[in-house]
Specification:
By secondary structure, the chain is mainly α. The protein folds into two domains: 92 residues, no CATH class; 99 residues, ERV/ALR sulfhydryl oxidase domain (Four Helix Bundle (Hemerythrin (Met), subunit A), Up-down Bundle). It is built from nine helices and two strands; from the N terminus they run E-H-E-H-H-H-H-H-H-H-H. It has a two-stranded parallel ribbon with strand order 1-2. The longest helix has 25 residues. It is elongated. The structure holds flavin-adenine dinucleotide. Flavin-adenine dinucleotide (FAD) binds next to helix 5, helix 7, helix 8 and helix 9. Its EC number is 1.8.3.2.
Length: 215
């Protein structure tokens, strides 16, 4: 499976003007041509913000010096970067000591990913052992829709490609749990994360460990 390149590129849905603009390392643009927070990890997001803030400051200094307003023709991407800069700068300027990013801020790629996998594995853990034809069809369409709307564009595109090669196995809870585990492992492999033992999906997502520490 080809590794999706999320950094330093525009996503497939990028506008052409944005695509021709060199992007800072780690930045991915969304369909609106603006930096995509849910396609970027927070460290990169903040670095982009700081870099763009510096660029914006230089631009305004240059404008003041020349009295010109030629900078107003900046591309959508550049405008988006400046927006991200302002947001990141505001966040870092007003960050209190006990600030908890995960609880207070919009999701980045990592937070979104963890929350989504929790939802997907848990949903599948409670799927019927013997689903009706209607339930199988609903699950297929749910996963198909999910892969259209998952708000990390490159992740979603990659998932759709994988689902074409290996469509969801909806005939039983066990099959679907293994299938979902396999999908997650494909992403883990690309990201260099540990491969999960799919025999342990029920323990992880439904029953908890035998020693009762989660009870
Ligand atoms: C559909 C989808 C596609 C994604 N695609 C990308 C991508 O292309 N690029 C990118 O950078 N990020 C992608 N992500 C995000 C990425 O998978 C992680 O969620 C994110 O990097 C945070 O990782 P994490 O180490 O916290 O644990 P996560 O990978 O989020 O896992 C959460 C927990 O699930 C359990 N787990 C791990 N593997 C499995 C498994 N195979 N089966 C069952 N349980 C498991 C573990 O207990 C783990 O702690 C995607 C997320 C989703 C939901």
């Amino acid at each position: 499976m080809p590794a999706p390149d999320h950094s330093s590129t525009s996503s497939s849905a990028d506008t052409s003007s944005a695509a021709s603009t060199p992007l800072p390392p780690g930045m991915v643009l969304g369909p609106d041509g603006k930096p995509c927070r849910t396609c970027t990890d927070i460290k990169s997001w903040r670095k982009i913000g700081k870099a763009a803030k510096g660029a914006k400051k230089e631009e305004s200094t240059a404008k003041t010096a020349s009295g010109s307003d030629s900078g107003s023709t900046a591309t959508t991407a550049a405008a988006g970067v400046a927006g991200a800069a302002a947001a990141a700068a505001a966040a870092s300027a007003s960050t209190p000591a006990a600030f908890d990013y995960e609880k207070e801020c919009p999701a980045d790629k990592e937070i979104l990913g963890r929350a989504t996998w929790t939802f997907l594995h848990t949903m599948v853990a409670y799927y019927p052992d013997r689903p009706s034809i209607q339930e199988q069809s609903t699950m297929k369409s749910l996963l198909g829709s999910f892969s259209q709307f998952y708000p990390c564009g490159p992740c979603a595109e990659h998932l759709r490609e994988e689902m074409k090669i290996d469509p969801p196995k909806v005939a039983s809870r066990k099959e679907l749990s293994y299938w979902m585990c396999g999908m997650h492992n494909k992403v883990n492999e690309i990201l260099g994360k540990e491969i999960f033992d799919c025999d342990k999906v029920d323990e992880r997502w439904r029953d908890g460990p035998a020693d009762g520490r989660c009870d």
